[in-house]
Amino acid sequence: MYLEHQLSDLFFHNGIVIYGKKSISIFDLDVNLVIKLFEKHGIVLFRDFDLDGKSIKKFSNQFTKNYSQDAQRRNSRFGDRNIRNVDYGFEQVDLHSEASFSPSWPEVIWFFCNKAPKSGGETIFCDGIELWNSFSSEIRGLFLSEQIQYTINIPVLKDKKKFLNSKKNWLIEIIGSGFGIVDQTDGCLKMTQKRYAVNESRFPDKLAFANHLLIDVKHEPQLLERKLSNNRKISNDIYEKIKNNAKQITYAHKWQKKDFFMLDNKRFLHGRKQLSPVEGRDIVILQTKNTNFGYGVYTKNI
Fold it and tell me: How far apart are CA 238 and CA 141, in angstroms?
């Protein structure tokens, strides 16, 4: 038998921890129960299970229709192109929704701890539902009416030769994308992605603030610029209000070896606290672009 426990009271429905036992494999968990818990809580921590690179991919496959292509700058791990290192470095990384500026915005992301630091380097999580509910009507009105326009530059290194022999215009059939341009000098796709900073959560009456507005662009080499779709910049005053509100409801997770997270990337923001160069840590990520179950299939009646 396994045990369940709440992760943090800072989250809507508190998040959930599923503890394993020596006699139980993570594959003994009922798939439909995991989906139900994930949809309700938005963040699930699997702890005390015997996991490795091969098993985390096998487990995520049970919930994945297809995977997003992760940033080329991140090295693949465990001999699997869908498992990548999180970004290296030791400085703080501000809250963001993974790749929310790109056409391949993942629906679910998975974090696995291969080595935990003794101190520092906590991953931080903020529930976009709770954050949205904390905003004034002024801020909510702004983001309900205006989209965010992300200007991005995506390397297509493996396909460079293919693009060099094709037309410059490149159609991206994602809402808010349209046409991009392949720069034949560097093999990069240059495009604009428009997307609302707030979106519908898995709960019919709840909106979630999940986007790429708070993170410093230096942590995202593919992201060149972001502004409102009316070509105006978001004021520093609004940025400070959002950051202050987020700070009040952000949970910092202290890693244990083999911790494994399933995170609703269209609801939750995540980031990283400063990490000591002496400590180090080893965290990998998988990105489920589309799940193989319905969006809100278990939460429409909660």
Answer: 12
| Distance, CA of 290 to CA of 293 (rounded, Å) | 9
Identify the burial level of 175 via C-beta atoms within 10 angstroms of its C-beta, where 0-12 means exposed, 13-18 middle and 19 or more buried.
Answer: exposed
Strand, helix or coil at 55? helix
CA distance 156 to 166: 13
In this predicted model, what pLDDT tens digit does every residue of 21-35 receive, in sequence order? Answer: 877 899 999 999 999
Compute CA 172 distance to the chain's CA centroid, rounded to the nearest angstrom.
Answer: 21
Structure tokens at 187: 């093999």
> Is 0.70 surpassed by the pTM of this model?
yes
Q: What do you get for the CA distance between the two ends of the chain, in Å?
A: 26
Averaged pLDDT, 235-247 = 97
Residues across the chain: 302
* Residue 20 DSSP symbol: -
Gap between the Cα atoms of 259 and 113, Å rounded: 5
Q: Rounded to whole angstroms, how far apart are CA atoms 223 and 154?
A: 8
d(CA 237, CA 240): 5
Distance between CA 74 and CA 234 in Å, rounded? 30
**Residue 160 Rama label (left phi>0; alpha psi -120 to 50; beta):** alpha
* Burial (CB count <10 Å: 0-12, 13-18, 19+), residue 197: buried
Angle of helix 236-248 versus helix 137-145 axis, rounded to 10 = 110
